Amino acid sequence: MLFDTDIFIWVQRGNIKAAQIMETDQERFLSAQTFMELLQGASNKLQHDRIKSFLTDLGFTILPLTENIGHRAMIYIEQYALSHGLTAGDAIIAATAAENNLILVSGNEKHFKPVPDIKLKVFRA
Questions:
Q1: What's the CA gap between 118 and 46, in Å, rounded?
Q2: Residue 69 CB-half CA count within 13 A
Q3: Which CATH architecture group holds 2-122?
Q4: What is the pLDDT of residue 33?
Q5: How many CB atoms lie within 10 A of CB 76?
Q6: In angstroms, rounded to a whole number, what is the distance separating the alpha carbons of residues 88 and 40?
Q7: Which end of the chain is least crowded, N or C, by CB within 10 Å?
Q8: First-to-last C-alpha distance (Å) of the chain
Q9: What is the C-alpha to C-alpha distance for residues 69 and 91, in angstroms, rounded to an integer?
Q10: Which percentage of the chain shows pLDDT scores above 90?
Q11: Model confidence at 25: pLDDT above 90
């Protein structure tokens, strides 16, 4: 499964359900976009190190931004930015899920529901 940034935030806030969904999946992925968003949200180097340690300890694989992902994300923006408010970051995350044929786990159903190419597992806190 590919985990959206919001799931990591729920885990950081101590949400048991978010932690359980992460722990139950044997193959854990995040997009390069999510990795950057997590590091951007840190307020110091210690938090950076904790984020990277958490990802390593749980065996997460960071999926790189490829040419195909970038192209697909541009198409998503063209199709869904005006009609549904899709942002560039969410387009990259959706494209990463689609290009890698992964289920995307997110609590932000509104952000991803219009994108027909992805398999979305909606998280409810």
A1: 35
A2: 21
A3: 3-Layer(aba) Sandwich (3.40)
A4: 98
A5: 25
A6: 16
A7: C
A8: 18
A9: 9
A10: 92
A11: no
Return the closest-CA partner of residue 103 out of 20, 41, 22, 32. 22
What confidence score (pLDDT) does residue 26 get? 86
Report whether 34 contacts 4 (CB < 8 A). Answer: yes
> Which residue type is seen at 4?
D
Cβ atoms < 10 Å from Cβ of 43: 7
For 82-92, what is the mean pLDDT?
95
Tell me what pLDDT residue 125 has. Answer: 78
Where do the structural domains in the chain lie, given as residue ranges?
Answer: 2-122
DSSP code string of 26-95: SSEEEEHHHHHHHHHT-SSHHHHHHHHHHHHHTTEEEEP--HHHHHHHHHHHHHHHHHH---HHHHHHHH
The answer to whether 117 touches 98, Cβ cutoff 8 Å, is yes
